[in-house]
Amino acid sequence: MSLLPVFRHFLTHLSHYTSKPTSPTTVLPVIRTLKTLTPVFLSSNPLKKPISNSTPQVSSRAADNALILNKDERVGSSSLDPNLPDPEVSSSSTIAAIVTSLGGQASAVGIVRLSGPTAVSIAGRVFRPLKKRKNVSWQPTSHVVEYGVVCDSHGNVVDEVIAIPMLAPRSYTREDVVELQCHGNDVCLQRVLRVCLEAGAKLAEPGEFTLRAFLNGRLDLSQAEDVGKLVSAKSVAAADAALAGIQGGFSSLVKSLRTQCIELLTEIEARLDFDDEMPPIDMDLILSKISAMSHDVESAMETANYDKFLQSGLQIAIIGRPNVGKSSLLNSWSKSERAIVTDIAGTTRDVVDANVTVQGIPVTLLDTAGIRETNDIVEKIGVQRSEAVAMGADVVIMTVSAIDGWTNEDSKLLARIKHTKAASGSPVILAINKIDQAPLAHLEFVDTIDESFDKRIYTCAITGHGISDLETAILELMGLQNIPAGGRKWAVNQRQCEQLVRTREALTRLRASVDDDLPLDFWTIDLRDAALALGQISGEDISEEVLTNIFGKFCIGK
User: In 3D, which of 50, 202, 191, 178 has the Cα closest to residue 123?
Assistant: First the structure.
């Protein structure tokens, strides 16, 4: 009887799987679970462990947390019937791809990677070690480097390589992996890859190596997503956040929250059947757990905005009428000579960009043409582009000259900015430039227009005065002022944030159920919803469509 709550919970998840289109990634885990549970429920003594030759054994080494099975359970090598061959096990289930970048300058070394049950045999068909015995197939030792050549089917040498075998499960995918380090020229890499494909490998799909790492338990889904972030990181902070996620920063939090939900769910479901035999429920402890979990969820959600800017960066448009020091401000900020600076009004005719980093956030500065009424066709195009840039920017910095003060042209430009701001919602900062050349009397105009701007900063492009104030103002306006100097350790993406919102809502409903003294059945509904949402983050309960969408964004070779 003590197994009934667990069995009820299992049937709920089974119905969840059967209500969706079936696929190998969703059906196989359910069938394996059924095969594992069947002896338990058919045994006359359910508490006694069934004796089986295929019982999983746990490694005694503390550092090795992997489950070691007597039977090979890797993707592509499992079968529903152990007496029948698995149709998935063939040379086509071994993938190959170039895992180093292509199309740029030739590098000294490039890598072709094979992964799958026949990776070693395929590599053995094309790789000839320098010290090879005649008529003996290649039998590598895991993680031992060998030097040799790659030959095509006719025996022609394609390239000199170093082969690095990494046998399962001590590899990135937890499958047999062989990496061939070739010369970094695109021609050499393509030739070696073609030979591997002709020997029986299949060209890898985008992200397929990481997908296999996820399916084989090497990474959970949130860690796999961080692999993609690390590959595409645009700043040190983005790389650090992604690396912290890969090392388990966020996934450990999700695992802890999900474990707490399941433990609480198990206790409550047990009380549904054996309430008379159990001690009274500790309401204070229950409420304390709910509050702690809600706090952790809220803290994780706060990183979503940070992740968005880490991945896409900020665009900041510097606009103003001609000759107010926009180009000088961009050059001073970026510590470069990106924009041409002269005393002639209208020097900048097009948008000039420069990249900087603000508190780990990649920022693109956009110097625009001076906005004014003009009959010059080229300058008119520049003005139109300036207005378009202001419309799409995350932050707009309107620059005025402290020497000239506020002019009618500035008033007209401000009216345009207000119209743009109403459409885009971008914050606007007023930068009073050239303050080193203006007496204080010229700055009285600021008080009359201050309410039209979100922030006001005094700057001097020549000395760099006010640049740090601009950066601080931008962080405050974008809600990023509380980020540590080294950036956050990890951050959640939009998909993960959506599931955290589901978790928060479920915990809020659970708190309301407890406060309203509703029956325990209502508690289990909310706890199950929270656990399912957290399972979506880690990938323990995920659809094939979501997996395709996530890994389809990866590059081929990762």
Answer: 178
Q: Residue 103 in 3-state DSSP?
A: coil
- Residue 514 contacts residue 287 (beta carbons within 8 Å): yes
Tokens standing for residue 133? 């015995």
Question: 296 phi and psi, to 5 degrees?
Answer: -65, -40
Distances (CA, A) of 445 to 69, 401, 548: 77, 12, 57
HSE, side-chain direction, 13 A CA sphere, residue 171 = 28
- Residue-wise burial string across 87-101, b where 16 or more C-beta atoms lie within 10 A, e elsewhere: eebebebbbbbbbee
Number of alpha carbons in the 13 Å side-chain half-sphere of residue 105: 2
Helices (H), 72-141: 119-126
- What does pTM read for this prediction? 0.70
Nearest to 210 by CA among 235, 253, 236, 242: 242
Q: Please name which of 489, 471, 520, 444 lies closest in space to residue 314, comparing C-alpha atoms.
A: 471
DSSP 142-158: TT--EEEEEE-TTS-EE
What angle do helix axes 236-246 and 249-274 make, rounded to 10 degrees? 40
Distance CA(161)–CA(295), nearest Å, equals: 53
- Which of 528, 491, 526 lies closest to 505, judged by CA? 526
Dihedral of CA atoms 183, 189, 195, 200 in degrees, nearest 10, equals: 120
Distance CA 208, CA 206 (A): 6
Residue 104 carries which side chain, given as an amino acid letter?
A: G
Nearest to 454 by CA among 472, 436, 440: 472
Walk along the chain (558 residues) and give the pLDDT tens digit of each residue: 444 444 444 444 444 444 444 444 444 444 444 444 444 343 433 333 333 333 334 333 333 433 333 334 434 333 333 333 343 433 348 999 999 988 777 889 999 999 999 999 999 999 999 876 666 788 899 999 999 999 999 999 999 999 999 999 999 999 999 999 999 999 999 999 999 999 999 999 999 999 999 999 999 999 999 999 999 888 888 888 899 999 988 999 999 999 999 999 988 888 887 777 778 888 889 999 999 999 999 999 988 888 888 888 888 888 888 888 888 888 888 887 755 555 555 555 457 778 888 888 888 888 876 565 656 666 566 666 767 777 778 888 888 888 888 888 888 888 877 776 666 677 889 898 888 887 665 667 777 776 778 888 989 888 889 999 999 999 888 887 766 655 557 889 999 999 999 999 999 999 999 988 888 889 999 999 999 999 999 998 777 888 888 888 788 777
